[in-house]
Amino acid sequence: MLPRDLRLSRPDDYARVKREGRNYTSRLFVLGIAPNTVGHNRYGFIASKRLGGAVERNRARRVMRACVQALHPTLRPGYDVTVICRQGILSQSTLAMIPELARLLRQAGLVEDASS
RNA sequence: CAGGGGACGUCAGGCGAUCGCGGCGCUUCGGCGCUGAGGAAAGUCCGCCCUCCACAGGGCAGCGGUGCCGGCUAACGGCCGGGCGGGGCAACCCGACAGACAGUGCAACAGAGAAGUGUAUUGCCGUGGGGCAACCUGCGGCGAGGGUGAAACGGUGGUGUAAAAGACCACCAGCGGCGCUGGUAACAGCAUCGGCUUGGCAAACCUCACCGGGAGCAAGGCAAACAGACGCAUUGGGGCGGCCCGUCCCGCAAAAAGCGUCGGGUAUGCUGCAUGACGCGCAGAGUAAUCUGCGUGCUAGAGAGAUGAUCGUCCGUGUGGGCUUCGGCCUGCACACAGAAGGCGGCUUAUCGACCCCCCUGGGCG
RNA sequence: GGCGACGUGGCCAAGUGGCAAGGCAAAGCUCUGCAAAAGCUUGAUCACCAGUUCGAAUCUGGUCGUCGCCU
């Protein structure tokens, strides 16, 4: 799913989302969303050092990517999205996270009305 | 059988399905094929390769490191073998293991005295004085006994004496010198002599021997972008991160180039970036570390960072529940430490466990 | 990824081999009708684990944590 085109790569991109975007928070995630001009969505994933070592942080990012992969076809294009995980994500199963992330995206208005 | 030790150790769940990710190759641009984390990838504690500082030279000072002997290695603070010391009944394990008669220094408190051929209002002995006595006190000798301390200036027995003492003697321990034997050496054994004892701390300064130029892949190179000001010069200026030698660069008409200071700007692309002191197998040399030869293999290369998600099945261990004909069966859960970022050799630290081989001690049976 | 510095009561900190200063804060007591101020008292695994030493916050090695720098 996420080839390189669909990922945020520059530090400036993350800073722009943090500065201009809107935030949506749940128990496991913090979403930052800002419109972009590239015509499709781009995603970035943040796992802080509070989660643990490199194994835990890489694991958290992979799980977040798997969730976004499942939801990406239903989303409205043209936005930069950052997903920040909070503590406790490593003890949750992936299948339980997808509805929670979908609820946040719907709250942000990114879910296509037709497909939902 | 129980407990324990060693080791070159080996492994780190296996197989399969669907949806996906990085790299390489092919492509009819739909896709297809191959391949994709570790023993520690970790900590960054050592040693190198590599890159830049022109070359990376010598000496002095300083700083840092290493420190029994021999060997291995590209090198090492690593490894192997040996010696010495310590621990264990043993197999075996552990050791920053040079020098304290080159010098300087340190030892709180307690204690008479803490290293100085030093030590006295505890004590022992002789003797004088006072007192009925217990006892008090002057002088002299002593360092054995008691006591303090982490540590008190050899031990035992005897001679000796008023009482004592290496004051003297015998044996023992320890120190030093010379010699012989074994060993490449560290060292060990033996013999002899000496003064009779000269302690501890060098992970205190230090001495001796040896080693080390500095910085690091965000090194460095190419391209792109941005692009100013000032200063520097003939018995000159600057570099080689201290000094000297030596050597190099620039300049000696100007300009350019160079160097320095300040300011501005910048994480954009490519490269460095993976065939190497490489892995595996066999044979040989060596006690071993290791080396040599032959054959064979190519084995991650990202750039906010690729291994994930959902399942099936099998095996092992632990644990909960149910059934049981006590052999087991069914089912649920859990199953280590941990993720490459230039590469390599080590060390250290983390780690649920499983397996192979060798050895020691104790018990039982034959 | 690389390089470097630092961990001492709740906070700021001195101490560099010999019973761990000081200030702020906190609690208790004195003083007061009550408070404030003042005075007195109380409190430390010296980040952790080993080693050297008679003796370690200090010296040495390792572990953990925090912070800074790189063009």
Provide an overview of this structure.
There is one protein chain. This protein is an alpha+beta fold. It has a single domain, classed as Ribosomal Protein S5, domain 2. It has 3 helices and 4 strands; from the N terminus they run αβββαβα. α2 (54-71) links the parallel β3 and β4 (79-85). The chain is globular. The relative contact order is 0.23. The chain binds 2 RNA strands through β3 and α2.
Strand and helix map with partners:
Layout: H1 11-20, E1 22-25, E2 29-35, E3 42-46, H2 54-71, E4 79-85, H3 94-107
Parallel strand pairs: 3-4
Antiparallel strand pairs: 1-2, 2-4
The protein binds two RNA strands through residues 1-4, 7-11, 14, 44-46, 53-55, 58-59, 61-63, 65-67, 69-70, 94-95.
Feature tags:
single chain; 116 residues; alpha+beta; Ribosomal Protein S5, domain 2; four-stranded mixed beta sheet; RNA-binding
CATH topology: Ribosomal Protein S5, domain 2
Please tell me the total number of domains.
1
Distance between the termini: 21 Å
The CATH C-level name is Alpha Beta
Instruction: Give the name of the CATH architecture.
Output: 2-Layer Sandwich
Structure, briefly:
With 116 residues, the chain is an alpha+beta fold.
